[in-house]
Amino acid sequence: MCFKNLPVEFDSEGRPYLRDDVRDPYGTERSPDLNGGSISTLSRDQIEDLLARNGHIQQKNFDPVTRVAGALAFHSVVDLEERKVLESRSVATLFRGYEIIMMGRDPRDAIYITSRACGVCGGTHSGTAALATEMAIGIRPPPMGIVLRNMLSVLEYLLDLPLHLFMLAGPDFSENIIRKTNPEVWERATRTEAPHANVHGYGTMGELMTDMNALTGSLYLEALGMTRVAKEAYALIGGKFPHPQTMVPGGVSATVSISTMQEVYLRLQQFFDYAKKCAAIYDDICDFFYEVNPRYRDVGRTPANLIDLGVWDDPEAYDATYENCNEWGEKRWATPGVIVDGRLVTTKLQNINLGMEEFIDHSFYEEWEGQTFKTDPLGAPLSPYHPWNKETKPRPQAPNWREKYTWSTSPRWDRMPMDAECTARMWTTAAAQLMPENPYIEPTGHSLKLLLPAGRLPEMELEWKIPDVWNAFERNRGRAYCVAYTALVGLNTWHQGMELMKAGRTDVSAEYKVPKGQRLGVGFWGAGRGYVSHHMMLDDGVVTNYQIITPSTINASPRDPWGTPGMYEIAALNTPILENSPADKFQGIDIQRSIRSFDPCMPCTTHIHTDQGIVTREVNTCACGADD
Amino acid sequence: MTIHAPAGLGAPPDRVQAPEEGRRRVPEGPVKVVHAFWMAGMSCDGCSIAATGATNPKVEDLLAGIIPGLPKVVLHHPVLAEEVGEDFIHPFKLAEEGKLDAPYVCIYEGSIADERIAAEHGGYFSAMGMQAMEDSDEEEGGTPFSTAERMGRMAPGAAAVIAIGTCATWGGIPAAAGNPTGAMSLMDFLGKDYRSALGLPVINIPGCAPIGDNFTETVAAILLFLQGIGPLPEFDELGRPAWLFEETVHRGCTRAGYYEEGIFAENFGDKECLVEVGCWGPVVNCNIVSRGAQSHMGGCMAAGGPCIGCTMPGFPDKFAPFYTAPPGSAVSSTASRTLGFGIRRLRALSNHDRNREVRWDAVAGGEVPSGWGEIEKPGLLDKTMHFFYEKLQFSGNKRKPGRDDSRKYFADMPPRAEGMQAPRDADETAERG
User: Fold this and answer.
1) The domain B247-345 belongs to what CATH superfamily?
2) From the CA of A278, how many Å to the nearest CA of chain B?
3) CATH no. for B22-130+143-241
4) Residues in contact with A504: Cβ distance below 8 Å, sequence separation at least 6, in sequence order
5) Per-residue model confidence as pLDDT tens digits over A342-376
6) Is the ipTM of this complex over 0.85?
7) Nearest CA of chain B to the CA of A274: how many Å?
8) Which residue of A has its CA nearest to B116?
């Protein structure tokens, strides 16, 4: 059924089992079938040979990539004559050891400790840790606790999305950058009318791009203001941001009154008009670039392999059990799912969990011994590389492109590289049509219809359509529409909260005791930028293994055991060099756009470090090694 | 009246003109431009996110130089900076070499790994990956160059070095028990003898994440002092801004009154004092409840979150396991329960009395004309207590409690018409008579 590469099949009742005719079922000798999405890469020897023989082939390092949360080092080899990328390597350069710090601790520490994995999506980590803890120790939060958690996630994404759209990725489409990299595009922008002027207020694309300038543009400053609005509402429930203080096992500890509900509502409401504006701006940007040069459709292009765990639980359905995860998962406001080559292959959380493996062949870790769990708690087969079996054994060592070069690992689903995205949750939700009935959001199978209430701008129905090409522009467009999607989930959530208040069902947490014996838990959730899971193992009330997978670990991953690159690497390899600046001023803007479109959030990847260097250094390399 | 504004704004020339030469202006101070170099070690970037939330002042207003008296701040930040590449790195080098044309401060976020551990294996925990590879032959690896090293070089020339967030101030979560990286704080890394160009040790603004306003306010306070406008900002023995961190968070807590009366939350979500569900507020230096987390909103205990001491050098291990009552609370909360039991009852009596208009007792015979519910008249015990209470309250005071007959101010006023509020007037006359 949903697996092509893992030898897992399903019986007549849909229960997964391991095929018994495969010797060494999880061996890594066979190369996986990548569904036509295979990526040809040159070997390191070929690259070094090319570099030695051709002056126009250059190593281009982005060290670190700027305007991403945290920082990311990216290495590429670019052929400036053929205008293409020959090699790309994504490097996470910081290790903090959160998974190791969790070992031997009380499980109740997980929420506050792992929150600190990321300073942008800390709330997501604390919430995901709460879900893992609840499953491991068996607590079902009351409905109001679930509704408030949902609201916290909504508010966190409403901070994250404007941050990405206008402060991190946005400047890539600003006058300041485009004038430098593509003067001809800027010239055309100044005389192109912006189709959605009636929504965003900009007459021409040039005027729009001027206001996208970093630090000075009014769209940049407005986004900064909107992140504060979201933070205010977040702090009213969470106490503070980015590491909330009210997330507890079994719910939340927030004291919520009518004041809280109204203060939150009046901040959420500000995003309805803003959402219309974000979608209008990014529609105009994407369509303008496609029109200027259709090859922009190849910038950051990857196979449409997307994965999401869904998010925003049904307060009456979520029971924190693994046994029922398929049922409560499908009742989320965002449907869990995996898209392979543009097609939805599963919406079951158990299948998504079974297909996940984490490889460390090119990462600064040592292999672990043995396999603790042959099956999941329902008896379905687990890979020895599954997070419940993985152990974190750091081994700092000299980086080497042929062997190990990053602190990030290589998570794969069904042995394929995946794109973890906030757009993934719109895609799976649109395609699956399982979303609970509600007045504002309607999945159609090929699109999501988003009905935004009237504010200063009139009522509008936006429609995000599943794109026919998956590239940097569509990632950004998806994020822009995700503002509307998220705000409308917030509206639904707020109404749920008010209904519970009317009914007097205001308990926000459940009591619990930490049980003895071996217990497994997993939190399936998502950050503003997508997929987050925490896998936990307890023995007599003590954490004996803790594994975190984040969207940027998935996207920033290095090559896997079969040499298939991670998604950033694939996106860069497919990117044509459309930049039109002199060779000595080459910025690599197209590569930068392709990587930034993923909204990289390196803090939780391994913990990358931001150095002084927003350095875009160009290195001419000779065959005998590197010098700069 | 002449409106002074820069010329060229398109307003009529007779109304808007450039100020005359030598005209008195808002005091500006000697510093026109300050560079701020933001570096991050083993961080989650949460401090950067917190700083962008600040409103007192806002980061973008500091950068724009639009606040009179405050110099324009040129921020060199990996996420916010406009420059890239060599343009960006150049000022760091100038500062390091002492060639920058303006004073600078360094801000450090995140803790610092003990790279000696990683170096034993030829690797690094926290470094610029590419640099590590290019410093020597690719297959051999190279020397990691960390922000901490950069910091070490820039620190002596900096006007001030500010550690932001609990990782940089005290090591934080990366330095928690069991950590493999030997993580430490900036003051541990720079050592006891470190002084900035102005003679200051490391300034510490803790919190995980810190309140954005605590950071920008401290920066602004230092700048205003340097301009000769503001008072000398005081720092405590650990380098924290004293006016922000001298009090325990409990003293400013919206729930501290519950503690005083011995009422404690039993479940998460309850509105009372959180000590018994794991709050360490009474022993933690922090101002998040009185200041709010964002734009004066939120704050851990205000929202219902028990304090886990995230501003403290002992965080996290001295506050774990979380969600359990601090052992010390067994003594202190028992004491406050005992004392609070009595105080609470006495207060309830006074509160009950003060929920009554004077007129209701003086004129209406104790009856409350509320349509919302039946309110009991004060009993004999209440009346006796309040008789003595009022004696105490007004002893030595000319004004006596009670209510005079308003009509006495109007000597020629005819007696009230029969029927209109007659029963109550009768009461009043009777009582006052």
Assistant:
1) Cytochrome-c3 hydrogenase, C-terminal domain (4.10.480.10)
2) 21
3) 3.40.50.700
4) none
5) 999 999 999 999 999 999 999 999 999 889 999 99
6) yes
7) 19
8) A396
